[in-house]
Amino acid sequence: MKQRMLERGVTSRQILTLLRSKYSVFREGPYQELNGDWKFNLKGLAAGKIIELTVVLKKHQDSPSSVLVTVWVE
Question: Which of 11, 30, 19, 29 is CA-nearest to residue 73?
Fold first, then answer.
């Protein structure tokens, strides 16, 4: 994922800003996958760029973690 972020000029700080912002919107999901993980696409503005993320929330009942699957910049 870090490679895609570098290729697309997106920083970790922009990702966190997007995840924290009350103005970010769900573009798809959240929905539960067959393995029990939850997946969603989130779109918003961070540092002047419109960014969309695909995020997976893994094992949210036992020990929650998240994985950034991919990132797009418009």
Answer: 11
Which band of pLDDT confidence, cut at 50, 70 and 90, is reported for residue 6?
confident
Q: Are the C-beta atoms of 53 and 45 separated by less than 8 Å?
A: no
Q: What is the pLDDT of residues 14-29, one digit of tens each?
A: 999 999 999 999 999 9
Q: Which domain holds residue 47?
A: 2-73
Please report how many Cα atoms fall inside a 13 Å half-sphere around the Cα of residue 20, on the Cβ side.
Answer: 7
The number of domains in the chain is 1
What phi and psi, each to the nearest 5 degrees, are found at residue 21? -70, 135
pTM: 0.81
DSSP assignment letter at 63: S
Could you give the C-alpha distances from 74 to 9, 11, 45, in angstroms and in order? 11, 15, 10
